């Protein structure tokens, strides 16, 4: 599809069958474990035309070559598999806890060596790079909402031949394009904003160059964490409305942060769209919007925060994020969440409901 199209148009039109008489508008779901011999795919674990449609759209949006996988964690895992045995990984102290947990285990079992850094501390990240095989970044981070200086850390990594992967789940390619900022690989939990309806688990990687793509494709093919065609079809269908959903969710987030900041029960609001947020200046430079995830700290501590999450009616008390429905949870209710995340921190995933309904419900729960 033409490079001149705005991503909002591209996301609607890319990845469709050829426009010709009686052609379907949507790529069909192909349920087949194998194919008649003689073609390029050959077997269901090696390729699927529904995957290709989804990958075409995501690849164009991110500016690379995409691969869909069974979950966000499956996508992360094949990237970590690129690290040679004993190789050094530089990763954030705060990141999605499934990722930090997997890296910790791999380090404790001697599969990798691991150096954790504050990903927002550019000097610390750069100081950790010598000898590294992989720099893993997440920005904004889940759930601390820290913003990494992606152009600076990617440039430093490139100068030392360190591969850079960025988890772009919170921003989506509509708000941030890590490959354009210097990264080699983008990772997504497609489960979240891309699919957008809390009905599928899915992941994706996007590689900037063919060689990295080939290495990742080989891992998907041989390790077998492949996506079901129905899930991919649902994700592609959900992704068609991403631009609209993101616009509305961000508008709601902006509306809510202004009110949350003024609320006496909220001791801190973390959102890079706030002018006094530590990540604001960076986010304004490298993102096209500040996203729809907010973290708040509740005055009165963990118990009070937990009570808030159990007192809403419209906001759903659940883990996960990026759906059309607003969700919230206290992250430290999970024992896997690091204790450097405040125990009174609630992560809010803002959906597309009416902003005033969202605020009234939150205000009631805070009261
Ligand atoms: C949810 C999430 C993941 C893991 O994705 P799954 O689809 O749940 O496997 C990875 N990174 C981030 C930032 C996430 O929010």
Task: Describe what this molecule looks like in 3D.
Pfam families: Cys_Met_Meta_PP. Keywords: Pyridoxal phosphate. This protein has 367 residues and is α/β, with parallel strands linked by helices. The protein folds into two domains: 7-239, Aspartate Aminotransferase, domain 2 (3-Layer(aba) Sandwich); 243-366, Aspartate Aminotransferase, domain 1. It is 37% helix and 16% strand. It has 13 helices and twelve strands. The chain has a seven-stranded mixed sheet with strand order 1-7-6-5-4-2-3, sandwiched between helices. It has a five-stranded mixed sheet with strand order 8-9-12-11-10. The chain is globular and about 65 Å long. Bound molecules: pyridoxal-5'-phosphate. Pyridoxal-5'-phosphate is lined by residues 71-73, 96, 98-99, 138, 142, 167, 169, 189, 191-192, 201, 203.
CATH fold description of the largest domain: Aspartate Aminotransferase, domain 2
The distinct ligands, each listed once, are: pyridoxal-5'-phosphate
Biggest sheet descriptor: 7 strands, mixed
Number of spatially distinct domains: 2
Please tally the β strands and state the result.
12
N-to-C span: 51 Å
Helix content percent band = 25-40%
Annotation keywords:
5-stranded mixed sheet, binds pyridoxal-5'-phosphate, pyridoxal phosphate, 7-stranded mixed sheet, single chain, globular, 2 domains, alpha/beta, Aspartate Aminotransferase, domain 1, 13 helices, 367 residues, Aspartate Aminotransferase, domain 2, Trans-sulfuration enzyme family protein, 37% helix
């Amino acid at each position: 599809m033409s490079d001149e199209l705005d991503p909002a148009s591209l996301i609607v039109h890319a990845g469709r069958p050829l426009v010709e008489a009686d052609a379907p508008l949507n790529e069909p779901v192909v349920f087949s474990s194998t194919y008649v011999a003689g073609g390029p795919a050959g077997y269901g674990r090696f390729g699927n035309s529904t995957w290709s449609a989804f990958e075409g759209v995501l690849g164009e949006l991110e500016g690379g070559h995409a691969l869909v996988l069974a979950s966000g964690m499956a996508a992360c895992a094949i990237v970590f598999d690129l690290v040679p045995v004993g190789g050094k990984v530089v990763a954030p102290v705060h990141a999605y806890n499934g990722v930090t947990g997997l890296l910790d285990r791999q380090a404790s079992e001697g599969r990798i060596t691991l150096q954790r850094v504050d990903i927002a501390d550019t000097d610390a990240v750069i100081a950790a790079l010598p000898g590294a095989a992989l720099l893993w970044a997440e920005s904004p981070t889940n759930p601390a909402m820290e913003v990494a200086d992606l152009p600076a850390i990617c440039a430093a990594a490139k100068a030392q031949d360190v591969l850079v992967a960025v988890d772009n789940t919170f921003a989506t390619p509509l708000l941030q394009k890590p490959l354009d900022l210097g990264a080699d690989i983008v990772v997504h939990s497609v489960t979240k904003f891309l699919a957008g309806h809390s009905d599928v688990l899915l992941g994706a990687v996007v590689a900037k160059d063919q060689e990295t793509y080939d290495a990742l494709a080989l891992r998907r093919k041989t390790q077998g964490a492949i996506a079901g065609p129905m899930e991919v079809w649902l994700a592609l269908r959900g992704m068609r409305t991403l631009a609209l959903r993101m616009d509305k969710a961000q508008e709601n987030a902006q509306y809510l942060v202004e009110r949350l900041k003024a609320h006496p029960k909220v001791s801190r609001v973390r959102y890079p769209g706030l002018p006094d947020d530590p990540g604001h200046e960076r986010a304004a430079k490298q993102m096209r919007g500040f996203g729809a995830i907010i973290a708040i700290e509740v005055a009165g501590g963990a118990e009070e925060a937990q009570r808030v999450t159990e007192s809403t009616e419209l906001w759903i008390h659940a883990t996960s994020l990026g759906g059309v429905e607003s969700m919230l949870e206290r992250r430290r209710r999970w024992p896997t969440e690091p204790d450097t995340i405040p125990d009174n921190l609630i992560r809010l995933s803002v959906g597309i409901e009416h902003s005033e309904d969202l605020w009234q419900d939150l205000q009631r729960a805070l009261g």
